[in-house]
Amino acid sequence: MTATALTRKPARRGRIALHLGCLAALLVMLYPLAWLLATSLKPADEVIASLDLLPGRLEWSNYTTALDGVNEVSIWRLLGNSLLIAGGAVLGNVVSCSLAAYAFARLRFRFRGPLFAFMIATIMLPHHAVLIPQYIIFNQLGLVNTYWPLILPKFLATEAFFVFLIVQFMRGLPRELEEAARIDGCGPFRSFFQVVLPLTRPALITTAIFTFIWTWNDFFTQLIYLFDPDRFTLTLALRSFVDASSTSAFGPMFALSVIALLPIVLFFLAFQRFLVEGMAGSGLKG
Hints:
- The protein contains 14 helices and no strands.
- It is 73% helix and 0% strand.
- By secondary structure, the chain is mainly alpha-helical.
- It is globular and about 70 Å long.
- Residues 79-271 form the ABC transmembrane type-1 domain.
- Its main location: membrane.
- Belongs to the binding-protein-dependent transport system permease family.
- It is found in: Cell membrane.
- It is a multi-pass membrane protein.
C-alpha cells in the first residue's frame, strides 16, 4: 500500500465523521419542528398523555378547527392583521434605518461620533425598560388598541441594530461613486437614492428578513397594545386558543402554530438567495 493511499484513508474517515456529525446536528435541530407537525395531528388525549413522536391516530379535525378561527374571528382576518403589521414594520425599518445609516456613514455633521455611539448604546437597553414610557405616550395620543404603536416606531429608526448593520455595509462602498455623482450635479438625497441605495440591497434585504421574522413572532408587544379580538394577530390567537377551550384545544393550537409558521418559511425561501448573496458578495455586483 502506497503512502498516498495511507494518507487518503484518514482523510476519508474524517470526512465521513464530519458528515455524520452534521447529520446528527441537523436531526437535533429539526426534531422540534417534526414534533410540532406530529403533535398537530394528534388527538386531544395523546397530546399530553403520550410521549411518542408519531400519533396513534391522525386527527385532521385539528386543522379544520384552526381554520375556523378564534373568538369568532376568521383565520384570514388574523393572517391579514399579521401581514399588515409585519409589512409595515419591514417598510419602516428599511426606509428609516437606511436613511439614518447613510447620515452616519457618508455625511459629515457636528456631534456625529457621539450620536452614533449613543445609538449603539441603545442596543444594550432592554425593550421592557422603554415599554412603559412608550405605552404612556401612545395612550395619551389615543393610539392604544390600534396598529400604530407596532408600526410607527419602525419609521423613526428605533432599531439600532439594523442602523449599525447598514452603516457597516455602506462604509465598505467606494466614495468615488458618490464623488462622481456629485460632479454630475447630484445632491445628498439623489446620491443616496440613485447610487448608495441600490448597492446596499443585500443589507436592506437582510434587514427586511429579520424584521419580518421578529415582528411576526412578536407576542409581548402585541399583547400590550391590542385588546380587540378583531385586531388580533396569529400570535395572539394562539394564546386565545388556550384561554377559550383550556387543555382540549391543544391539538388545534399546534395546528394553528404550523399554519403560522408557513408565511415565515415562504418569506425566507423567497429571499434566501439575496441573503446568501449579501453574505458572500461585496454589494457592487450587478
